[in-house]
Design goal:
Layout lengths: L4 E4 L6 E4 L6 E4 L2 H7 L4 E7 L3 E5 L4 E7 L2 E6 L5 E5 L6 E5 L13 E3 L23
Parallel strand pairs: 3-10
Antiparallel strand pairs: 1-2, 2-5, 3-4, 4-9, 6-7, 7-8, 8-9
Length: 135
């Protein structure tokens, strides 16, 4: 049986499924992720674009181009961030895994952009840290 993960936004207006395994879980400490999530980092996992399926609420989806070529997708009702996408990589989405309703066992594989982390935050685990996104 294939993996199906369910998720939703805060108001449950948007409900979705991910019909694949998650890629490596990354905690991104860049300033844009901090601002977009209102916290010290965003926790993301790459998924195939075709594996993301809206079950409800697709009309509530909004997008913001935060950097040229990077679009952040969110619920226009409750502002929950859902994923980011890049037209230069149409095969991938970077899912905000905090919106998953299905429990997962996997843990973060890395901290990225750790060199630009918030000065008030302390990374207190033994997960590998990278100054930028590793190749």
């Amino acid at each position: 049986m294939s993996t199906v993960l369910k998720g939703s936004c805060l108001c449950h207006g948007i409900q979705y499924e991910v019909r694949s395994e998650l890629g490596a879980i990354m905690q991104c400490h860049c300033q844009k992720c901090r601002k977009a999530n209102g916290t010290a980092f965003a926790t993301n996992a790459a998924i195939p674009t075709e594996a993301f399926v809206f079950l409800e609420g697709e009309s509530l989806v909004g997008e913001y181009e935060s950097t040229p070529g990077v679009f952040r997708t969110f619920c226009t009702r409750c502002a929950s961030p859902l994923y980011s996408r890049r037209p230069s990589q149409p095969e991938l989405l970077r899912l905000r895994i905090g919106t998953l309703d299905t429990q997962i066992e996997r843990r973060p594989a890395m901290h990225i952009f750790a060199a630009s982390k918030a000065e008030w935050d302390t990374i207190a685990d033994d997960v590998p840290q990278y100054d930028e996104r590793p190749a």
